Amino acid sequence: MGKLVAKTALCTLSALIGLALIVFGVLSLAAPSAMLAISDDLGMDKLSAAYSVAVCERTEKIEDLAEAVERNYNVSNYSECAKYGAKLLADPDFERYCAARDQQTAGNDNIHKSYSQYISGIVSTAQYYTGEEEAALNTAFSALGQTFPKYNAVKDLTVSARIKDDKIFCGQILERLQDMKVEDSQEQELLRNFISDLADYCTK
Mean pLDDT for the chain? Predict the structure, then answer.
C-alpha cells in the first residue's frame, strides 16, 4: 500500500512539474514582458536581459530596444548588446529618444553625460569586447562629431581598452583623436589634455 501511495505521489509530482514547465514555456513565448517583470522581481538579471531582447523584438519600440541594450551590457552579454546597440543607434527615432532621456535626467547631479554619449559608450565597448574594433571606433567617434564633451563615448571606450592594457587599440584611438577638429575652446583644451595623457600611456 505504501509503495502505491509513493508511486502515485511521484506521478502527481512529475505531472505538476511538467505542467509548470509547459506554462513557463507558453508564457515565455506569449508574454515575454510578463516574464521580464517576474525575472526582474526575482533578481534574475541574466534572464531579465534575455527576456528584454524578446520584448524589443516583439514590440519594435525604441524604448524597449534601449532597455535591451542596457540590460545586456550590465550582465556582460556583449554580443547581444553590440547587435541591438547597432540597431538602436541606426533607429530613425534615436535623436528624439536621446533628447527625451536627457530631459528626464536634467538636473540629476549623478548623471554627467548625455544619453547619446552614454549609450554610444556602452555599445562601442561591447563591440570592442566582441572583436568588432573598427565598428567600436566608428560608434564612439560618431557620437562626438566636432565636439569633445567632458564625459563622452570615446573616453568610455578608451577606459575599456586601457583596462585590458591594449596599447595597440589605444594607439588607433589616439590617431583618430589627433585628426579631430573641435570648435569650442574649452573642449579643445579637454581634447589636448586627453591626447597628451593617452600618448604618454601608449609610449610607456
Answer: 87
Between CA 104 and CA 199 the distance in angstroms is 37
Distance between CA atoms of residues 22 and 14, nearest Å: 12
Residues 6+ apart with CB under 8 A from 144: 152, 153, 154, 180
pLDDT score of 20? 33
Residue 31 near residue 22, CB atoms below 8 Å: no
Q: Is the pLDDT of residue 89 over 60?
A: yes
Distance CA 52, CA 77 (A): 12
In degrees, rounded to 5, the angle at the alpha carbon of residue 84 between the alpha carbons of residues 83 and 89 is 105
Calpha distance 123→139 (Å, rounded): 7
Q: What is the model's pTM?
A: 0.83
> What's the pLDDT tens digit per position in 148-158?
999 999 999 99
The contacts of residue 81 (CB under 8 Å, 6+ apart) are 69, 72, 73, 122, 123, 126
Contact 62, 84 (CB under 8 A): no
Q: Which residue in this structure is represented by grid cell 511521484? A: 10
Higher pLDDT, 24 or 162: 162
Please answer whether residues 61 and 98 qualify as being in contact, where contact means their C-beta atoms are separated by less than 8 angstroms.
Answer: no
Asked if residues 84 and 65 have their Cβ atoms less than 8 Å apart, the reply is yes
